[in-house]
Amino acid sequence: MPSVLIKTYGCQMNERDTEQVLSMFLAGGYDITQNEDEADVILINTCSVREKAELKALGKMGLLCARPNAKPWVVYGFMGCMSQSRSNSLFRDIARLDIVTGTHQYHNVYKLCNRLLRNRLAQHITEPIKRGARICAVEHEDGFQNAIKDHLPPSGNCTAFVSIMQGCDMRCSYCIVPSTRGEECSRPMNDILTEAKELVARGVKEITLLGQIVNRYGRDEPIINGRGAFVRLLEALHEIDGLERIRFTSPHPIGFRQDLVNAYTYLPKLCSHIHFPMQSGSDRILKLMLRPYKNEKYLNLCEAMREARPDLAITTDIIVGFPGETHEDYLQTKAAVERIQFDNAFIFQYSPRKDTPAAAMADQICLRVKEERNHDLLECVNRIATARNQALVGTTQTILVEGPSKNNPNRLQGRTSQNKPVIIEGNSAAVGSIVPVTITECTGFTLYANVQQ
Ligand code: 5AD
Ligand code: SF4
């Protein structure tokens, strides 16, 4: 039986896309492997959001293709965002590369790879294999978002991602995503509900809804009883028996309405965590980023949600060193971090991306200043996050038990509603169950707990 290996970089959307592609290989009779020497098809699902992510994927593929003892027929391919933006030029970077497929072509990956592998295996018997097939599929396909249905068969996972929309119509000046992922397009609500019910029937307890800007889901649909399509989707999911937890990522201040704030008061399955990218605390920089709102709006939304759900954990994304960012702008970002007291924040140094307006702006910030701001902000974020975690010691939390701890198989690990990882002493609790625990200890970002009897 042939086998396939997929390495995934980037966001949860990419993880979900990888899962869909793997399930098609499984249905075609392939094994899934993590072993590079064993795999007959090797794919990398790529991210373009920062240059570092692209270099990582290119470096990894270069190494894979250069392995002296690799089987001669191995099919090598790039999928996803970097394929979409760099397209054919990737064949120049890596001569041995066979296949490049874009973000609207995930449903064709299996067919293209399998056909090439079968041809090669047949050809191999009579003549040396020609390297570098150079198959490129990056076209847009209508209705492709409805092809995202297949999940991997049950593997005991009690959590799953569900894609509710694709693409993005915002034009943040730093971001490559609108050009890699295309126009915003929502999936029909019934499809999403059917998928969620199927997942629950297989033992899934927690679903994370994925979209570039989830709160804009179905924004052309009417508002009914004050509720927009996204909140109506949350309400409908909430009705599903056996589904215990609902998460979503990521929302945006534009189109974030009171109905979503209110949802935190009457939907108990909605977890007490929101990943809500802030990007900058300076109005001047937000304007240059083409994010059409003031930071005060973002801060007010955070505070309104905390009022609706007092234990809400808020995490965020922040870019430092955006073109033109002064020390004063940076200090405003830091002040916003202090005001909101985030549970965690991912800090990114601005990375110029191809064909984005910010890449052409004057006043690019030098690496030294980006690093200084990154370092300084990280210290601030870590201090706040540690204090917030420390405050949980001695409290009761409910944990969804996800499986054995990675570092110690005699312990279990899970997550709180606030999405904090917790290691549980002993292994008596059942995987997939939701159990009350007492938090006993905290080391920075990991909590330790005992199951309550
Ligand atoms: N440079 C640095 N960070 C970026 N992000 C998006 N584009 C860039 C860029 N060009 C960050 C944003 C986004 C997260 C996924 O990546 O903070 O929320
Ligand atoms: Fe990276 Fe954005 Fe593509 Fe996700 S959607 S893989 S974050 S570029």
Write the layout of secondary structure elements.
Elements: E1 3-8, H1 12-27, E2 31-32, E3 41-46, H2 51-65, E4 75-80, H3 81-86, H4 89-93, E5 99-101, H5 106-124, E6 135-137, E7 159-163, E8 165-166, H6 177-181, E9 185-186, H7 189-201, E10 206-210, H8 229-238, E11 245-249, H9 258-266, E12 273-275, H10 283-288, H11 295-308, E13 313-320, H12 327-340, E14 344-349, H13 367-390, E15 396-404, E16 412-416, E17 421-424, E18 434-443, E19 446-451
Parallel strand pairs: 1-2, 1-3, 3-4, 4-5, 5-6, 7-10, 10-11, 12-13, 13-14, 17-19
Antiparallel strand pairs: 8-9, 15-16, 15-18, 16-17, 18-19
The chain binds 5'-deoxyadenosine and iron/sulfur cluster.
SS elements, strand count: 19
The chain-level mean pLDDT equals 94
**Based on CA inertia axes, which overall geometry fits?**
globular
Q: Give, in spatial order, the strands making up the sheet with the most strands.
A: 2-1-3-4-5-6
Strand content range: 15-25%
Helix content: 25-40%
Q: In DSSP terms, counting alpha (H) and pi (I) runs of 4 or more, how many helices?
A: 13
The hetero molecules present are: 5'-deoxyadenosine, iron/sulfur cluster
Regions with pLDDT < 50 over 5+ consecutive residues? none
Terminal CA distance: 47 Å
Main pleated-sheet profile:
6 strands, parallel
- Calculate Rg over CA atoms: 23 Å
Class based on secondary structure composition and strand pairing? alpha/beta
